[in-house]
Amino acid sequence: MKYAVLGAFGQLGRDLCPVLGEGAIPLDRTKVDLGIPETIPQCLDEINPDVVVNCAAYNYVDKAETEPSDAMMINAWGLKKLSQWCKTKGKYLVHFSTDYVFGMDRLRKSPYRENDLPGPVSNYGISKLAGEFVVGANCPNHLIIRTCGLYGVWGSGGKGGNFVETMLRVAGQGKPLKVVSDQFCTPTYTKDLALVSAFLIKKNAQGLIHLTNQGSCSWYEFARAIFELGQVEASVSPISSVEYNAPALRPGYSVMETWRAEELGFSPLRSWRNALSDYLVERKIKNRNG
């Protein structure tokens, strides 16, 4: 089996390719750029993969408020071309989406299931939900994996880091931190996500699946755990979303149940705290070894 992995050099792609095995073909934007749809058939026709895995995305949540067309181009319209190619060639398409397709239900306090109605509150969330519809409408043989709050030792390729690294960097500079305490989600370690995603892909799982680590926390609680488990001294205080005043709205609650993956025979991923603890150890080893 050959797996063409778009966005292979982002933090998720870097963890996913090794567990897919020798058949994984890593592709970056120089080979396939969803923002330039004509690159899609040019590259994939030559590779002729059995499976196409899309880890690529426009993920600048705040910038999408002023660049909505860029977000839609990559997260939806470029994905349409990719989906159509997969359908025409009879290929299996795997696409990663986000908890940001939720958020409109401001009173929500129970985890979302796959059959719950989405309702994004930002241009980024709208573009990602549009991408889900595009995949479903254009490629019957597909798997969409919604996940949340990703962090991995390779950092986010586009953003140049992730929440954990940002917290540790700012704390290391001795600066006080204010972190939102009224947005709840499940931070997810890309290494854990990649392992189960690879099994789902090889099982040819279909449809929509939620996949995150277990449990939930606010971003403030997540920051506190980073410093506690990392044994880092830091000045961190809670702040409300209104006070933080980010350009884009975020879901107040976007915790997701993972019952469909469990229904397919997969054990729940470990707790987010246990995953974070291992991540902090892994990043030390990576930094030490260069």
How would you describe this structure to a colleague?
This protein is α/β, with parallel strands linked by helices and 290 residues long. It has one domain: 3-Layer(aba) Sandwich (Rossmann fold), CATH 3.40.50. Helix content is 41%, strand content 16%. The strands form four sheets. Strands 2-1-3-4-5-10 form a six-stranded parallel sheet, with helices on both faces. Strand 1 (3-6), helix 1 and strand 2 (24-27) form a beta-alpha-beta unit. Helix 1 (11-20) packs across helix 6 (190-202) and helix 3 (68-89) packs parallel to helix 4. It starts with a strand and ends with a helix. The relative contact order is 0.15.
What keywords describe this structure?
290 residues; alpha/beta; Rossmann fold; 6-stranded parallel sheet; two-stranded parallel sheet; 12 strands
Summarize this structure briefly.
With 290 residues, the chain is α/β, with parallel strands linked by helices. The chain is 41% helix and 16% strand.
Describe the SSE topology.
Blueprint: E1 3-6, H1 11-20, E2 24-27, H2 39-47, E3 51-54, H3 68-89, E4 92-98, H4 123-138, E5 142-147, E6 150-151, H5 163-172, E7 177-180, E8 184-185, E9 188-189, H6 190-202, E10 207-210, E11 217-218, H7 219-229, E12 236-239, H8 241-244, H9 259-263, H10 272-289
Parallel strand pairs: 1-2, 1-3, 3-4, 4-5, 5-10, 6-9, 7-12
Antiparallel strand pairs: 8-11
Helix pairs in contact: 1-6, 3-4
